[in-house]
Amino acid sequence: MPAADADRGDRRSGLGLQQRRALNHAAIFLTIVGLWELGSRMGWLDPLFYPRPSNILRSFWLIYIENGNIWPEIYSTASLVLSGFVAGSVLGVSLGALVGLNGMVRRFVKPYVIVLEATPRIAVAPLLIAALGFGASSKIAIIMLVCFFPPFINTLSGVVNVDEQRLELFRSLGASKLQLMRKLVLPDALPVIMAGERLAMTSALSGALVAEFIQRDQGLGALIMTYTRNLNMASSFACIFTLTILGFLIFRFMEWLDRRIAFWNSEEGLQRVGARRRKRMEGLA
Amino acid sequence: MNMPTQNSGQADTADQAADAGAKDAVVAARGLSKTFADGTVVALEGASFDIAPGSFVSLVGPSGCGKSTLLRLIAGLIDKSSGHLKVHGKPVDAPRTDVGMMFQRATLLEWRTAIENVLLPTEIKRSLTKEDRRNAAELLRMVGLHDFRFSFPTQLSGGMQQRVALARLLQTGADVLLLDEPFGALDEFTRERLNVELMRIVAEVGATTLFVTHNIAEAIFLADQVFVMTPRPGRIASIVEVPFERPRSPSLQTSPEFNEVVAEVRDILGEDH
Ligand SMILES: Nc1ncnc2c1ncn2[C@@H]1O[C@H](COP(=O)(O)OP(=O)(O)OP(=O)(O)O)[C@@H](O)[C@H]1O
Ligand SMILES: [Mg+2]
């Protein structure tokens, strides 16, 4: 829309561009939901597979408030995701740094990494359950497996691709291997490592669901399986939307963490940390 | 800030037998050569020279004539293939803290503020004191960046980044400064101003300086001696003495005497320049 038009519209309605955008979105959303509701009521959509929005809303009420039975499952899935993610990515980052720093190990490990990278990790899930048995440990192992590779690969490449001239600088300053690692290699690799962590976190939720689909004992995955088998599609949808929100929160959290850790990649981060360091050092220098 | 100058002729037996160079030379080389591993590239052949304390030496020559190789040998970053090389009378066999190096790119760490970058060399040696922080702030004042000491590298212009790198070089306390085309990536205006400042600063701290450049006029303007180098194999073809008084002003570069020296250097370099 030409700017002049937008201006005129603003003056007429007395609303900012932001608010008008929000209104537009709300209108589109309500239209879709309305059509869905109508379709279900008129029998255009099979109500068995496409439950009415009003029913889904009622399911939300039921599982969140009246029965409150979704809370332990959310807790179960979330804690599974978190522990698997932490374990897998810590392992990935440390092994990646170890392999990256040692040229010989790197040469030996490389072919295996390529083979494993080409294999969909989730395919190994049934084997892990067979090996570790049903229960928390095999679930965590599955999530660890999907969370391991992105940080591992990214840490490896981040550590290997250190700028030659900076390495030379550190050598000329007489830095030890540990100092080189702590003051140059790791900070330099941090943005790449964080990109790997974000990828890992996204797969962690999918990994948890697959584990729960297979084991069907607890968690949102198991709940979806139960509701679907009982043809309670409205509640299944309520669980799926719950996962949407969970996924969104995880995404935003990782974004926030990335901005905190690799602060120097954003103007906002530079301002924030710069102000803090100025405060800390002003009296000293 | 300077390191104490060590006496020459201590604790080295093999090199003592060979000619160790003039008694008071800070850097002394005899027949210094470097051939890279594949054995085909003679990056530097038979370089011999003495560099007096506090003097400013420029290295000029076309690309590939071994300028960076010579600097990296002196810094102890690479091993020589043959010949003798001493800094402060001691053979060079590893990176050492009395020699500091600065590169064409500022190589600042972008997660550190300017002052934290300047403090890096000290941090690597020992834990920081208040005195170190004051010293680093003072050095940033010397290069005209005191107001920017809490800025991050990405918030500074290219010229300002090189000033921070210069302050970091001075913070090492090294009294032999090796500068490999330090302002080569900057625009001419900024480069000229930084050159003048560099002359002032190294004179102030009394450091011995080796300065690599492709620019003949710049090399002469800054230096007491110009090492004119030629490629294939990399050699020091001639050492040209620069007779002009200090302090020098940029207008010197338009004088006929100055242009005579330029012509002399150009003559040694031959057709390619
Ligand atoms: N690590 C290396 N391995 C093999 N050959 C090298 C290495 N470093 C330099 N050389 C070769 O040695 C020669 C001299 O290189 P050097 O970098 O010293 O030149 P330079 O005078 O600094 O050139 P420039 O002005 O382009 O920086 C070149 O032929 C170069 O290809
Ligand atoms: Mg070079």
TrEMBL record, chain A:
Q: Where in the cell is it found?
A: Cell membrane
Q: Which InterPro entries match?
A: MetI-like, MetI-like_sf
Q: Where is the ABC transmembrane type-1 domain?
A: 74-252
Would the keyword Transmembrane helix turn up in this protein's UniProt record?
yes
Q: Supply the PROSITE patterns for this chain.
A: ABC_TM1
Instruction: Indicate how the chain sits in the lipid bilayer.
Output: Multi-pass membrane protein
Q: What is this protein called?
A: ABC transporter permease
Starting at the broadest rank, the lineage of the source organism is:
Bacteria, Pseudomonadati, Pseudomonadota, Alphaproteobacteria, Rhodobacterales
